[in-house]
């Protein structure tokens, strides 16, 4: 039987090539033009799970895109790990900002990835990180080192809010029963300092529409006499923050979890260079809520951001027009104890209340989810920490993430089990952006580390 390090080294070229083939499929769930590609990716995941050693794999239909379910049950008296991941990816726009085509993967070196990184949409989020688990299972089955049962639930709608996942989980609780849920859809501090995400922010996502006159108007004939929806929308959005970058929606902070100074000081132990942070983003200074550090602003504090804004004429040249309508998409990242439905309601009431009578306002809620915290005394966390410590040579640091994975709170509610977030990406990997990439080191290190989690979780569950 081979140990995991030697197995990864002997098979690394195959592992990389398999991932590259998966990344070539443009499984963009948000765009119906790619629906067949999404379905083809589900088929590819099914075949990969079967080859890796699952005894049973099925493509489960849902109201939306299918969920790929796989399992290898070796002894019902042993613990069961449920692996969650997603095979859909974000749209690649804007295409012109990619240095290479988003679905033609290439390997290039970077400052953070001197051993090379795979550049492609979905490389880190989440095909690369999901596929680490498939290859980890392959190692454990080939070498007879699987210490417990394993189940896989890989969905195709994560990037559009996992709308079918709750439907599936509610109807398949016995099939999905487990002792711990394992997800790799987050990151770590650096390639020399692993971290485990212990907290996720919730999310409220809305689209707003401001309507003025019943048609587009000539700005010379009507300018200054009727409401300009674009001007008004800009003022309304600007009023959502005060001079200290504090969100002005009444009741928004009522249930915000306030961390103690002790907890904040523990978080501050994570290595962080403000100068390197600014340099990486090519900015002169950081910006955010007064009284909090950069790492606190993007993890333990709620936020409100405009994700897109449009209206009127945006084509080449000039067109003197007052648009009938203006639009914006707005996301609010929430901390534990903030209910996303309540925040959406508070936003809607406030946004409608600040609109002048000269316009009409419509707020359309999109997807959302609750925040989540995993306690560090949980055996799943402790098993993950032991796995990272053995693999990297140093203990992991617990870290709260600014991101949102709404389905984690759903899993705890429906399946009554904790989720462990073992991410291997870096914050420089440009997920959701042009030139997304995933380090070769990180990909292979994930395959090397995951079997250790199974080992220690099984031992600690006895």
From TrEMBL:
<dbReference type="GO" id="GO:0008233">
    <property type="term" value="F:peptidase activity"/>
</dbReference>
<dbReference type="InterPro" id="IPR002933">
    <property type="entry name" value="Peptidase_M20"/>
</dbReference>
<dbReference type="InterPro" id="IPR011650">
    <property type="entry name" value="Peptidase_M20_dimer"/>
</dbReference>
<dbReference type="GO" id="GO:0046872">
    <property type="term" value="F:metal ion binding"/>
</dbReference>
<keyword id="KW-0479">Metal-binding</keyword>
<feature type="domain" description="Peptidase M20 dimerisation">
    <location>
        <begin position="199"/>
        <end position="357"/>
    </location>
</feature>
<dbReference type="GO" id="GO:0006508">
    <property type="term" value="P:proteolysis"/>
</dbReference>
<dbReference type="Pfam" id="PF01546">
    <property type="entry name" value="Peptidase_M20"/>
</dbReference>
<protein>
    <submittedName>
        <fullName>Acetylornithine deacetylase/succinyl-diaminopimelate desuccinylase-like protein</fullName>
    </submittedName>
</protein>
<keyword id="KW-0645">Protease</keyword>
<dbReference type="Pfam" id="PF07687">
    <property type="entry name" value="M20_dimer"/>
</dbReference>
<keyword id="KW-0378">Hydrolase</keyword>
<dbReference type="InterPro" id="IPR051458">
    <property type="entry name" value="Cyt/Met_Dipeptidase"/>
</dbReference>
């Amino acid at each position: 039987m081979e140990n995991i390090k030697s197995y990864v080294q002997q098979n690394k070229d195959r592992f990389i090539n398999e991932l590259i083939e998966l990344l070539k499929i443009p499984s963009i769930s948000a765009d119906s033009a790619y629906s067949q590609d999404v379905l083809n990716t589900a088929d590819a995941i099914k075949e990969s799970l079967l080859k890796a050693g699952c005894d049973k794999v099925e493509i489960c239909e849902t109201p939306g895109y299918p969920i790929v379910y796989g399992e290898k049950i070796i002894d019902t008296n042993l613990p069961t790990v449920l692996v969650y991941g997603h095979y859909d990816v974000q749209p690649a726009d804007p295409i012109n900002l990619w240095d290479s085509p988003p679905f033609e993967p290439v390997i290039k070196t970077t400052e953070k990835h001197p051993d090379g990184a795979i550049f492609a949409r979905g490389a880190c989020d989440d095909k690369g990180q999901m596929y680490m688990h498939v290859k980890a299972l392959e190692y454990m089955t080939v070498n007879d080192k699987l210490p417990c049962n394993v189940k896989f639930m890989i969905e195709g709608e994560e990037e559009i809010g996992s709308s079918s996942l709750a439907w599936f989980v509610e109807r398949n609780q016995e099939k999905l029963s487990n002792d711990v849920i394992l997800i790799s859809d987050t990151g770590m501090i650096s390639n020399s300092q692993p971290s485990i995400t212990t907290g996720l922010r919730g999310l409220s996502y809305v689209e707003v529409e401001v309507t003025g006159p019943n048609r587009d108007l000539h700005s010379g004939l009507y300018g200054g006499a009727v409401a300009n929806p674009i001007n008004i929308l800009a003022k309304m959005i600007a009023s959502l923050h005060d001079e200290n970058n504090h969100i002005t929606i009444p009741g928004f902070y009522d249930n915000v979890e306030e961390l103690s100074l002790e907890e904040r000081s523990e978080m501050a132990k994570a290595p962080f260079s403000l100068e390197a942070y600014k340099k990486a983003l090519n900015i002169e200074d950081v910006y955010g809520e007064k009284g909090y550090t950069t790492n606190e602003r993007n993890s333990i504090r709620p936020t409100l951001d405009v994700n897109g804004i449009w209206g009127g004429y945006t084509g080449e040249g000039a067109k003197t027009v007052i648009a009938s309508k203006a639009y914006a998409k707005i996301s609010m990242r929430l901390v534990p104890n903030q209910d996303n439905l309540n925040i959406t309601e508070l936003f809607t009431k406030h946004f409608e209340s600040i609109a002048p009578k000269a316009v009409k306002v419509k707020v359309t809620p999109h997807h959302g989810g609750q925040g989540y915290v995993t306690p560090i005394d949980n055996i799943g966390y402790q098993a993950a920490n032991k796995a990272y410590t053995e693999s990297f040579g140093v203990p992991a640091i617990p870290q709260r993430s600014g991101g949102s994975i709404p389905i984690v709170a759903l899993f705890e509610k429906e399946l009554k089990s904790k989720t462990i977030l073992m991410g291997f990406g870096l914050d420089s990997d440009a997920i959701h952006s042009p030139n997304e990439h995933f380090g070769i080191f990180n990909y292979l290190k994930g395959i090397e580390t995951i079997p250790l989690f199974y080992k220690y979780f099984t031992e600690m569950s006895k």
